Amino acid sequence: MKLHLGCGNKKIHGFINVDIREEVEPDLVDDILTLKSVEDSSADLIYACHVLEHFSFNEARDALFRWHKILKPDGILRLSVPDMDAVFAHYFYWKELVEIKGFLWGGQDHLYNYHKSGWDYEFLSELMSIVGFRSVERWDWENLAPHNFTDDYSQAYWPTKNCIYRSNEQPHIEGKLMSLNIQGSKDV
To answer: Domains in the chain, start-ordered, CATH in brackets?
Structure first.
């Protein structure tokens, strides 16, 4: 079983798409913080893209504990969150707060779309390790299906990713990845 938590309008084929909002028509309506309708040790993969930041730090810790319990041994938790290193670097260089406000505070277009926490690699990887995840590392959306076929925030570049092709050269990619893509596995 593969779970896509906080799916919103972005559904991934082959996953059980979970969201608390009925109006986005998920496969399963549930609070992803508690996931009361999902059994322990039942998921092979949990994918949560740009949802952890919608919890306070304490809630995020609790969510990670719950998601760890839901995973089968050797199961993988794959996360994507706004990368505060990239967000702050963009601000300090460009001084354009309006362009990064969504990464900092969420879209604020419905009750659940507000950010309560922010993460960098060191902070999130340490918390994942404390919760019990092993082999915590970054993952690359371009080389990892089904993410390379899913247009979601794990691929968020700013400015927007542009490929510039020159004759007989590799494409030059402009833009900075603004998402921290990190994963860990559950012990056997």
So the answer is: 2-81+110-154+180-186 (3.40.50.150)
